[in-house]
Please model this.
Amino acid sequence: FEKGALLGIAYGATSGGLSTLIGTVPNGIFAGVFAQTFPEAEGVTFAKWMAFAFPIALLMGMSAWAVLSIAYMRNLKIQLDKDIIKDDLAALGPVTRDEKYLFAVIVIMLLLFVARPEGISPFVGECENPNPNLTASDEYACDDINGIWTSFIDDGTMSCLAALILFFVPSSHRPGEMILTSKSFSKIRFDMLLLFGAGFAIANAFTASGLSLVLGEQFGKLQESMSDFGFVFAITFIVCYFTEMTSNTATSSILIPILLSVAVDTETNPYLLGLPVTIASSLAFMLPIATPPNTVVYATDKVSFWDMIKAGFWLNNIGVIIVSCMVFVTGNVFTDLNTFPDFAQP
Model:
């Protein structure tokens, strides 16, 4: 039971992170690289990503429960001591005011993520209008006069606003200080920001150097001999096992720009190649080095290397099947995956 519970925590964290843009790093990298590669596209919004990825995360969570139940819970009768759980809960103490404020700010931020595309962005921006005699104060009026609307607000704005609020909320733990202070900047993972930037630089380099054309020709030959499902399945399978040996951040930073460039050169819908490689970058359940949750659980010394492989191998393969199928089901929330969109035209 102990091994199953610990692995359940790791696999649950990995599966749950798939469902939102801020849940795991590859999701954010995909949104950023996609926006940079296709500036005329509507973009990957928080709400649309949840509509696409939440069913996948739910299926992966259920699969993890099934695999771990079969591996570690068969013919096992458990009697949990409720007093121990109550004592541990009491040791945490009451919920502090800082924690309540932080929870409220997170909820507000999530609501802004969902409301922004339709309720905020269309009203904060400017209209590039070919006719100077006509004006438009919002995106809808801009569309009526055949103008091009540029919004000043994106998901990054919502994130910064949420963080900014915490700089003005007094802390109950540190009287005289706010919940966030200037000292908080020293804890920012600038190495992660540089890794994000590297992904965007790679995306530009592939196009500028002409490497995307070379890769596009090679992938095009491979794609001609396979169906769309077969091609997506092959990509998902390769990336799933490749990311076991590297961090999901590095994997997505390298492969997402490549496959988006390939999609353009082979006139394939960019979402059809970008979505599976993004999700597959986080489908790493076998090795301790694959994801931070795996590393944390392995460091407890309660789970052996082979315990992780035994359950993770089956979950990896189940994940490949789920992702390959669900891309064609929920991926259509972004666009019709059977068409080559105008925003991707060279």
Notes: The first helix runs from residue 2 to 17. The longest strand covers residues 125-128. The CA atoms of residues 84 and 90 lie 10 Å apart. The two ends are 55 Å apart (CA to CA).
